[in-house]
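Example record

The entry below shows one chain as it appears in the dataset: sequence first, then C-alpha cells.
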Amino acid sequence: MQSQSSEDLRSTPSRSSSLRAHHTPSPLQSHRQSFTDSLRGHPPSPRATRQPSLSQAQLQELLNNPPTKGSADPRFVDRDWQHIGVGELCDPADLRWVEFDSGIEDATNVLINSGAHVLLVRHHKDERAAHATYDYRDLTQYLLFATGQLQPDEEHFPIFTSLAKKAQAGHTIPLRDAKSLGNKEPFITLPSTANLTHAIEVFGGGVHRIVIVEEGTDNVVGILSQLRLVKFLWENGRSFPILDRLYTQSIKDLGIGSQQTISVNGDKALKEALLLMNLEGLTSLAVVDNHSNVVGNISNVDTKLLTKSSSAPLLDNTCIHFISVILSTRGVNDGKDSFPVFHINPYSTLAHTVAKLVATKAHRF
C-alpha cells in the first residue's frame, strides 16, 4: 500500500501542481511576511554615525607611547637605576636545578615541563652553588650531534665516540658528558650587590643571562636575563626620568638595530637552519622567502618539538614546514592563534619597541 501510494503521487504531477497553485498561506507565513515588511525602511544603526573614541593622532600617540602594565614598584622610585643591585631583580623561586649525573633525557624533560628557559647544573642535590647551565641552545647542539649533523673537533672526538657507543647500547648519557661537546655559552656570575650598569656591560658582550650569587659565597639567589632587565626598565621607566625621555624617540634616531641580518630561506632543510644558528651563536633565526620577505622565525626553544624519535624526519623537511608545525602546536597548547612574525619599523618609538618585546617575549624583531 505504501509503495502504491508513493507511485501514485509521483505519477500525478498535475494534481500536485494544482494543490500548490491553490495553496493558501498559513497565518504564520503571513505573520513572517508582515514582520519582514515592517523592517523595510528601518533606521540605520547608530554605529554608522558614531564618532571614534580616539582620533587618528591620539591612536598613533598611543601606539608610540603604550602604557606600562600596572604601576611602578615603589622600591625604585627616585632612585638612580644604574645603582640598583642586580639581586633586587631576582626571585629564588624561579630557579630550577639538575645534577651533572642526571641523564640528558631527564634534564630535557625538566627543562620542557618546568617552563624554565635555563636549568642550573650542580654536583649534588644539597648544593646551592651552580657550575654550569643547561638550556635550549645546549639541547639544539646535542640534537645536532646525536643525529650526525654536527661533528666534533679532534679534541672532543674520543668523547663523542664514547657517547655514541653508550647510546647504541641503550645506556643513559649523563648531562656531564653531553655538556662536554661543542661550544658553550660563558658561565658568568655576579654578586647580588653588583649594580645594573655592571650587568649591562656583561650583556653587551653577547651573554644572554647572568647567574646571581650571594655576596662572598657561591650560593645562587637568582638569574638575570636580558629580557628580565628590559622588562624591569620598561615597567619602572617613569621612576627613572633619564630613561623615560628616551622612550619617545624613534629607533632610527637612537641608532638601535642591526643593518646586517642573518636569515635562512624557507625552502632550506631545517637541519641547515639549526646548524647556522649553532655556528653563529644565535638564539633565533629569521626565515625568508625567495624575495627576502620574512615569513617566520625559528628559535632554540622550538627544538623541544624535535626531542621525540618520531620527529626526526622534520630535520630533513623545510623550514616553512617546521614553522607550520610550531604554529599548529602553539594553537593546540595555548588555544589561540599565534603570529609567525613580530615586526617594527625604523620610525617606531623605543617605547613601542620595548613594550612589544616585553608583551611577546620575542628574541628579536
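Notes for this example: DSSP finds 15 helices and nine strands in the chain. The beta strands are 97-99, 118-122, 132-135, 189-191, 209-213, 220-225, 263-265, 284-288, 294-299.
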